[in-house]
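The passage that follows is intended for readers who have already worked through the single-chain material. We present the inputs for a multi-component assembly, then the predicted structure in tokenized form, and finally a short commentary. You are encouraged to pause after the input and sketch how you expect the pieces to fit together before reading on.
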Amino acid sequence: MIRHINTFIFIFLMVIPNLFAQDDIYDCENSKQFANYLFNTNQFNLAQHEFERLDFFCDLNDNTRLLLLKTYRKNQHFNQANQFFQTGNLKAMSDRFKMEYIRLMMSQQLYGEVKKAIDEGLNFPEKFEHHLGIALLQKEWEQAYFISTQQNTHNGIKAKGLVSIASESYNSKRKKPWLAALMSVVIPGSGKAYSSYWGDGFVSLLFTASTGFFAYRAFNKYGTNNAYSWIAGGLAVSYYSANIYGGAKAAQRYNENLNHRYIHETEDILFSDY
Amino acid sequence: MKLKIYCFLIISLLTNTLINGQNVEDVVTFANKQFNEGNFSIASKEYNRALFFGYPDRDFVAQRIADCYTYLEQYELAGDFYDRAYRFSVSDSMKNEAILGKTFSLLMEEKFILGLRELLNYKENPNTSQQASFHFLKGISYFGLKNDSASYHEFMKIAKFTPQQSIDTLIVKSEFKKISRYDKRYNPQRAYVMSGLIPGSGQFASGEITAGLNSMLLIGGLYLISLRFMHIYSFWDAVLAVFPWIQRYYLGGMEHSKQLATSKIQHKRYQSYIKVIENSAPKRYR
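Having made your guess, compare it with the prediction:
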């Protein structure tokens, strides 16, 4: 009987402290949940600190490690995330880690690295979208169009959007700088007008015509032995040649604006769920 | 032997009870200390921990997190947590605090219409401090939307709710009077026409002497050149040779004087509002 009483007291004394003791909110499991909460509420700075604490004190599972890498990316602490991928074997990693690597490289605009990974046969979700997206971001319109025609079925919204940009960007008519320059040689200002800068074209025509006329009158009145005539002539020639250069530049500017529009649209689609 | 075992168990029980894990109340106490010392980053993290692990006063903690983010100038996150504080709160006073905080965050992001919309959620029976803040934020919102008369009325109401503060309504009146005159004083359209009649005069009217002189000398020089051409060659020679230049600098000068007048109005309005805000800001915004 006494032995039973002793056993009961022993068990009682062992159990009581555990009943009263509270859950330690700093333990690994709780900290992990807390870090996830911080991440999900977009408090990435705080989430990073908590994940790093977890990394030091506890064993991180894949989910938590991935979230830590994502917080590095979101906080633009790219070096820390890069280090992880440099030390690991990318091909052996799960799809989610491969995808995170791709996003990390894309966020740093290291498109060449992503291209290399694709060329080396790395398989990851949204491979088609990234392959096509990089071609568009690097202004390789023909290549982008070619990639977009490689796959007949584009199920995702992203893929559909990018394919449409690839087709539109490939088919849009760009201005030819050499043609704009040539047009400016024949009719000053027409190169700018051809590049859709009608106002600039008209002003250029006026300026070149007036300086030309000015030079003509000067030579007519003072002849070739007067410096005044040559100054006026020099001014006219410099306007005329600058206008040729301006025509070519206008065509380039038109093309750049067009290209930028496609690049922005690509970025909007490709990075929408980063 | 038995005595020894009992002693060991009793000591174990005592130490176990004493060395407990930190609870959420401790976390909030620590966070409060950090908040009061201005360590808002640490405070926000600990308040978050308390919120996540079930601290009962969720509205207070959410409000504090939002305040931390306001001090850290992360207004989007601050707005999110003011929204939470509003949802968690059951007291009208706390809800009003959340609305004021959210509006302030929106105004700092220059989202004036959203700020006004937020203030529509204001609950009845606010205390005087909240009423003063309410009118203050409303005044700023109207300023951002360029509705000066509505803004004036809001700023004038602040003094009523802040008797302990020395708010000089005369300053508010005089500054708003000035604001109402800026549009006339620096009328952009008038500056444009003036520059058309006498090049540079529009710039002079906006107080930009150097720009005015520059325009006047340039256009004047071009006029002299055209007169000289008329004398040497003919009227049409002068028109053809100088017109493109005059067209460029004359019209450019007119446009420039209009822009100068517009930016002058903006600058003056801003200066007056700074004076109004410095004079009328309730204590919490000082």
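Commentary: Chain A touches chain B through 38 residues (CB under 8 Å). Chain A has a mean pLDDT of 89. How closely did your sketch match?
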